[in-house]
Design goal:
This protein is an alpha/beta fold. It is 51% helix and 16% strand. A six-stranded mixed sheet has the order 1-2-3-5-7-10, with helices on both faces. Strands 4-6-8-9 form a four-stranded mixed sheet. The longest helix has 19 residues, at 75-93.
Length: 262
């Protein structure tokens, strides 16, 4: 479900590789991605980590069948499952190397968290984005800190509440991605970002990442407490009647009851 391609200059590209499922984040893929990030983070000679998707989508977000199963499970299992994605996002954001999201297509739900947790994000002009959780009767609890840091509370609030689909130009305007390029030159644009990052001192880059966390008023203690709170929050919502209905409606390809009360 995950491929790693390496560049001899010192970069590694993580490729979400479930194209038939639009690279949806199943429990297995979350585990593979977390493990890969842990291993790459420990490599002293690795300079840059890129994240992209195989096929026509960057990532469709959470695997809905997995989400429904977790919501219907025992509360402790539901929370533990949520905690795994929380851990993945934290691991991605805290990578010692600079990270680059290369958005090559659809990016919905949890995929927005992956993008926002990366240091730099570039997108192809055909990419589409949505904080789609609300359409399923859910909330973007686990990705919310990263999305709000990237977009600000006002912009994040609009797209969290509406679930509207954004085009790439809108994503750039509101700060979700730094740059939009033609899809045909996306790989080349990513290469230019890697070139720029390789020109910087690796130790300085790690310190800059720590500096950004510090000057934004964050602490490790507060981050740890927040991660636990968010895992409990999404577990509660997806275990609710509305969350169960939204997930079931999606899988059954029918309108949710709040859209078609009759």
């Amino acid at each position: 479900m995950l491929r790693i391609e390496r560049d001899p200059r010192g970069s590694a590209t993580l490729i979400l590789d479930r194209p038939a499922a639009r690279n949806a984040l199943s429990a297995e893929l979350i585990g593979e991605l977390t493990g890969a990030l842990t291993r790459l983070g420990a490599e002293p000679d690795l300079r840059v980590v890129l994240l992209t998707g195989a096929g026509i989508a960057f990532c469709a977000g959470a695997d809905i069948a997995d989400m429904r199963a977790s919501g219907a499970g025992a509360p402790a299992e539901n929370i533990a499952d949520a905690q795994r994605f929380v851990t993945l996002l934290d691991r991605l954001e805290r990578m010692p190397q600079p990270t680059v999201a290369v958005v090559n297509g659809t990016a919905f739900g949890g995929a927005i968290g992956l993008i926002a947790a990366c240091d730099i994000a570039i997108a192809g002009s055909a990419a589409r984005f949505s904080l789609s959780e609300v359409r399923l009767g859910l909330i973007p609890a686990m990705i919310s800190p990263y999305v709000i840091r990237a977009l600000g509370a006002r912009q994040a609030g609009r797209y969290m509440l509406s679930g509207e689909v954004m085009d790439a130009a809108t994503a750039e305007r509101i700060g979700l991605v730094h740059e939009v390029v033609d899809d045909a030159v996306l790989a080349g644009a990513a290469g230019k970002v890697v070139d720029a990052l390789l020109a910087g001192g690796p130790r300085a880059q790690g310190e800059i990442k720590a500096l950004l966390r510090r000057v934004s008023g964050r602490s490790d203690t507060e981050d740890t407490a927040l991660r636990g709170e968010l895992a409990n929050w999404i577990a509660r919502i997806r275990g609710s009647e509305e969350g169960a209905e939204g997930l079931s409606a999606f899988l059954e390809k029918r309108p949710a009851r709040w859209r078609d009360p009759g």
